[in-house]
């Protein structure tokens, strides 16, 4: 703030238009800012859902392919672990990279950061709009002041994000569940922390967004058998390529001197 008044790019270019949109929606919806936030969340998530489902589908394909190459991965990792020289470790690392490349698998997974990047300006706009708007900061929704922190939304956000994490593990092998464990724990904790330090209006956005995330996960779970079927069909035409760790060429005494 400057002289007690908010200013800056986020407030002027994002928060003020968001305030006007919330006020307009509130007028249409009988004066409820809570329902205005829900409508905005619905629109944002509806626009993003095809992108997020596509990202999740790619991630599922990557997971299924990684499961196919896991026996080879285990061998290479064992050789990397038992490597006695830098050359042997480097050869194992190159073999692992080649295994991923030959089988068209991304080493960073299929989930990109685009959905999060799209939402960041929305988080900032809603936060500033609620925090600095006299009307929004004092309005209530179902007895909860949207301008103050709400323990109710902290709990609801944690529950819905934990549920989404659990749903994402359904139908997966135990090994994949173990690999996803850290993400399943970290994601609800981060969202809950953000809800705790934010006005309840943003907590409402996170909670409704979490419901959409659960729906998206259920859609992916429904699609997973078909994805597996498509991968098996693809592997009939293009079987998994095997990669072996090439023994590093030993240098001669003359080469070592050089």
Automatic annotation (TrEMBL):
GO terms for biological process: protein insertion into membrane; protein transport. GO terms for cellular component: plasma membrane. One of its GO terms (molecular function) is membrane insertase activity. The keyword Nucleotidyltransferase does not apply. The chain crosses the membrane at residues 105-130, 150-170, 204-223. It is found in: Cell membrane; Membrane. Residues 33-221 form the Membrane insertase YidC/Oxa/ALB C-terminal domain. Its main location: membrane. Keywords: Cell membrane, Chaperone, Membrane, Protein transport, Transmembrane, Transmembrane helix, Transport. It is a multi-pass membrane protein. InterPro entries: YidC/ALB3/OXA1/COX18 (IPR001708), YidC/Oxa/ALB_C (IPR028055), YidC_ALB_C (IPR047196). It comes from the Bacteria. Belongs to the OXA1/ALB3/YidC family. This is Membrane protein insertase YidC. It comes from Ligilactobacillus salivarius. The lineage of its organism: Bacteria, Bacillati, Bacillota, Bacilli, Lactobacillales.
């Amino acid at each position: 703030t400057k002289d007690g008044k908010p200013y800056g790019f986020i407030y002027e270019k994002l928060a003020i238009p968001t305030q006007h949109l919330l006020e307009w929606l509130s007028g249409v919806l009988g004066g409820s800012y809570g329902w205005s936030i829900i409508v905005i969340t619905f629109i944002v998530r509806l626009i993003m859902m095809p992108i997020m489902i596509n990202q999740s589908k790619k991630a599922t394909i990557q997971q299924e392919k990684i499961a196919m190459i896991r026996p080879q991965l285990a061998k290479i990792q064992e050789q990397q672990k038992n490597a006695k020289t830098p050359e042997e470790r480097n050869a194992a690392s190159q073999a692992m990279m080649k295994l991923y490349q030959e089988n068209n698998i991304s080493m960073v997974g299929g989930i990109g950061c685009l959905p999060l990047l799209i939402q960041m300006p929305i988080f900032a706009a809603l936060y500033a709009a609620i925090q600095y708007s006299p009307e929004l900061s004092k309005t209530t929704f179902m007895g909860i002041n949207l301008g103050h922190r709400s323990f109710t939304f902290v709990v609801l956000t944690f529950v819905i994000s934990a549920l989404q994490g659990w749903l994402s593990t359904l139908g997966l092998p135990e090994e994949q569940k173990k690999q996803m464990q850290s993400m399943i724990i970290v994601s609800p904790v981060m969202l809950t922390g953000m809800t705790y330090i934010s006005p309840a209006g943003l907590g409402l956005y996170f909670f409704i967004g979490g419901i959409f995330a659960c729906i998206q996960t259920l859609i992916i779970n429904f699609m997973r058998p078909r994805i597996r079927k498509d991968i098996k069909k693809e592997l009939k035409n293009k079987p998994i390529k095997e990669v072996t760790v090439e023994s590093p060429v030993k240098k001669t005494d003359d080469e070592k001197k050089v």
